[in-house]
Amino acid sequence: ADKENTVLSGSELAALTREQLVAMDPFPTVFARVSPQDKLKIVTALQSRGEITAMTGDGVNDAPAIKNANVGIAMGVSGTAMTKEVADIVLLDDNFTTIIFAVKEGRRTFDNILKFILYLLSCNSS
């Protein structure tokens, strides 16, 4: 198996404690067929490692993992009301590529704010 791309199935994940998952090196990059409880286990394990987490989902069973993630993302068209309520972001088009474009736009906005602050500080200090 490729050391950089570790795959873990739902049954393999269910057999691990949260502590065992946290200690995995390398941490799995793909999880297949996981339960809602496992999704929450993945989120908390990554957060224990100091990682920032994002979780997407559309069903009531996804709500706990979405709520506990640093950024919870719900599907707007197919998502349940509960999932949308606990999410930080609701995708109106249910398209995952929207997340990529939103992150790029957010980074661009953040960079522009930093440049503007630097400009203001340099003008006011002279």
Fold and architecture overview:
The protein has 126 residues and is α/β, with parallel strands linked by helices. It contains six helices and five strands, in the order E-H-H-E-H-E-H-E-H-E-H. The chain has helices at residues 10-14, 18-23, 36-48, 63-68, 81-86, 97-125, and strands at residues 7-9, 30-32, 54-57, 71-75, 89-91. The protein has a three-stranded parallel sheet with strand order 3-4-5. The radius of gyration is 18 Å and the shape is globular. It starts with 6 loop residues before the first strand and ends with a helix. The mean pLDDT is 92.
Radius of gyration equals 18 Å
End-to-end C-alpha gap: 58 Å
Strand order of the largest sheet: 3-4-5
- Level of helix content? 40-55%
What overall geometry do the principal axes of the alpha carbons give?
A: globular
Name the beta content range.
Answer: 5-15%
Quaternary organisation: single chain
Task: Compute the average pLDDT.
Answer: 92
What's the story with the biggest beta sheet? 3 strands, parallel
SSE order: EHHEHEHEHEH
* Poorly predicted residue ranges: none
Structural class: alpha/beta
Tally of DSSP helical segments = 6
Query: How many E-type strands?
Result: 5
